[in-house]
Amino acid sequence: MDRNYIANQGSGALDEVRWLISKLKLGQNVSIQGTPGNGKSSLVRFVADIMGKNLYSRACDVNDLISDYSGEVTMHNSGTQLSITPLRLALENGGIFLNEETSEMSGSIQKGLSVLLSDDRLDFNLPTIREQNFKTLNDYKKDGWKINEFCYVETFNPSNNSVGKDNFEESHANRLASYHFQDIDSLLSIGIELQKQDISIPSLEKCIEQRGVSEKLEFLNFVEGTWKNFKKEEVKLAKAYSYCNSDKLKENFNNIVEEINEVNSFYISLAKFFVEVKSCININSANTDSLFDSSIKSDVKNLRLNSPTQRNYDSAIKTYEMFKNEGFNEDLIKSEIASEQIRAICYGAKAKKVLNGTNQLEFLESIARKYSILVNDSPNVTF
Predict the structure, then answer these.
(1) What is the per-residue pLDDT for 163?
(2) Which domains occur in the chain, in start order?
(3) Which pLDDT tens digit goes with each residue over 213-241?
(4) pTM above threshold 0.85
(5) Which of 108, 70, 87 is nearest to 29 (CA)?
(6) Reading across the β-sheet that carries 177-180, which strands appear in turn?
């Protein structure tokens, strides 16, 4: 497979890759919720590769019309034309339709898709340019569309202070199997980015297991150099992926931290900064992190900020390695990265929001100085 994805959700045998494959095999509609930047869409694209399915995606907008999904007939020159949408292509080709950011999806769209997501899917109407204005999916199936192989997946971003969205229509929510995506553990986040720099953390690698999926979409484990319950001649057909075992992460915590510190202690300081910021936004997204403890916990709650994600680690570590290779001063590199990340976390008007006699920007600067990633004589972050 071309995509590289490290499964890190769930516990034990049922990780998010296996969960999603099992639901799609059963023909269930799926909803995946979680903060942006932690791999929801990457998971769906990775699973599409495993299952050999084409993926068609679109991002929701509050002003969407049902025709943005179903297509519509419009006048064009002297005739008519039918717009082709990602949903139509997924239905025609038996692909996965990824409906992203459904926190922006209106109630009317939810109701408009209700038949498509029900057991009566074949009764769902789509426009046509032939004699009749609409045809059912049952009619399109007779025309060769692979309706039975179609899969529906949606992702949405809950609000900062909640674990979910509370304004879905009941008729929509009840038609979805839901999965709550946890934030990636900070030690794994660091390891992923260091791996891109060809820097190895041996104790973290001990926490990574190899799992596989057969051509029949059966789940397999790689044990003692071979695929368990897998015929030798079929090994070349296995689609392997990596899984980070959270229990092993806890067992090897001290060694992992020590090895990362040997590479550069800045990365652990950066991670602690991100975790404390998360705790100020939503304590539930921070207290499951392996680095979270009483020294990180803040009394400030429910800040309206952009929660740090894997993208922040990616940007920060790439920037650090680039400047380090160019020979820049260490304190200057740290302060530049801290300033860049603070700007991203409190982008725009969020920076000047009043907070206990100061504002959110200055509050973030104080946290950054606590972990010495913004040194005391550094200038304040500007916008």
Answers:
(1) 41
(2) 6-180 (3.40.50.300), 264-370 (no CATH)
(3) 888 888 877 665 555 655 555 555 668 88
(4) yes
(5) 87
(6) 55-59, 96-100, 151-156, 30-33, 177-180
